[in-house]
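User: Thiazole synthase, Cognatilysobacter bugurensis:
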Amino acid sequence: MTAPAHLDPLVIAGTPYASRLLTGTGKFTDLEQTRLATEAAGARIVTVAIRRTNIGQNPGEPNLLDVLPPERYTILPNTAGCYTADDAVRTCRLARELLDGHKLVKLEVLGDQRTLYPDVVQTLAAAETLVKDGFDVMVYTSDDPILAKRLEEIGCVAVMPLAAPIGSGLGIQNKYNLIEIIESANVPIIVDAGVGTASDASIAMELGCDGVLMNTAIAGAKDPVLMAHAMKLAVEAGRAAFKAGRIPRKRFASASSPIDGLVG
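Assistant: Predicted structure for Thiazole synthase:
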């Protein structure tokens, strides 16, 4: 029987989390839908675009923290919309001020507006600065195994390779790159970007990923709350299947029941 989630936690920077599904907070119709979907997903880490979401920097406006309170959720500020290392570092420092010294951040430095692929040179520079500045950095990156290892060596607490372009819903397009990253990693590997439906999340977990982060796949669904619930189950099922160990793939059939000792 699969161990309860609290006995198989996702550990980030020394802190255990019962859920391996991390969710975004953008693209929902309103804060109430954000709350309902987050609850249905069972997420414990929720990522917030500091440059686009009010978490207190705009007094008098609706505040995300009113529906996702920090005492219940770990708020993961991200640097979405940043295209230089300097902008990303500045955004993380602002988040630290707004969240009373909060150290855990999600770094992403984008290369262009069309593909939203990461600028790996700027990402490396920003990661080095933030780690030296005392941040616990979870970093969005490409699916390059060499780069992923370099980010780990810099001191990032989690590496988050894309499975496909952000918001594309194309699913896992890079299984062998992800496996290579996973097998050489000593920090959690969390798929970030590209998931479109529950089976995609399950495949990521079956490959051995430690978690999945998603936003568009939930917020863009016809029923975001129901999809959030589906994603929760998919991540749990994929993790259980990975730990259970799948049977080897074979080209030919094999009997489900033993044939030794059959009469006649």
